[in-house]
DNA sequence: TTATTATATGAATAAGTGTTCATATGTTTA
DNA sequence: TAAACATATGAACACTTATTCATATAATAA
């Protein structure tokens, strides 16, 4: 009996640690409720967009006002190309929207989520 | 008069765009309310921690239950060292806390903010 | 003490990312 | 039409970062 039980436990265990130190009950319970791998990858990609100072600054200034590329570049004291590249990233992740007016393109935040997430982040770091 | 005005405008403008395309009123207004540069850098660093699939997964499993390093490694099918390295990052950003029990170290989420931010991210990507 | 186990960490490597430069696209004005 | 302007984009380079490997540290058991 003792031996059978041990055998089964080892069958479940993956060889990730060199030795057996797994709390089976916890692991199997959490495995059940784990979202699909792809969803967590998407979530990481979403937050990755916030994880860059330039993009954070862009999002912040856009939370104050709609703005064209050149305005943003001037505000952040950065090149137009750098800003344009980052706006593309923000666009792809649907964090900003834009409208064209002649030669100028005005960008703005896509929705209220963005400001809300920024605010929560601020709360955390100011604790 | 006309000339003086133009001169002043150029004084304000930074040479970020090749040509003058700045909306001065917007730019100067937003400049007033911009947080300190360091605060936005910290905010980016904070979100950077969420911008990695491994760390997102760790945060997710810890949102379900306190867990030891080996448990996490098994759940994510990754090496113990990789998990340990990432837990250090999470620890430094005060996203997880830990308690020692003999040889084992149990990690858990530092506070409720974390789950809240994860949930908001999920909302956005599931739209 | 020594052996075993759980975790931590430094170094190395591979993969990813942000900016710059040059240039292309698209719009307006002359 | 050509010239000027605002933005977009591909390529290159420097920089960052995640994982692995080997090893160190720390706690327990023999």
UniProtKB/TrEMBL annotation, chains A, B:
Keywords: DNA-binding, Transcription, Transcription regulation. It comes from Lacrimispora celerecrescens. Residues 35-127 form the HTH arsR-type domain. GO terms for molecular function: DNA binding; DNA-binding transcription factor activity. InterPro entries: ArsR-like_HTH, HTH_ArsR_DNA-bd_dom, Metal_resp_trans_reg, WH-like_DNA-bd_sf, WH_DNA-bd_sf. Pfam families: HTH_5. CDD domains: HTH_ARSR. This is ArsR family transcriptional regulator. SMART domains: HTH_ARSR (SM00418).
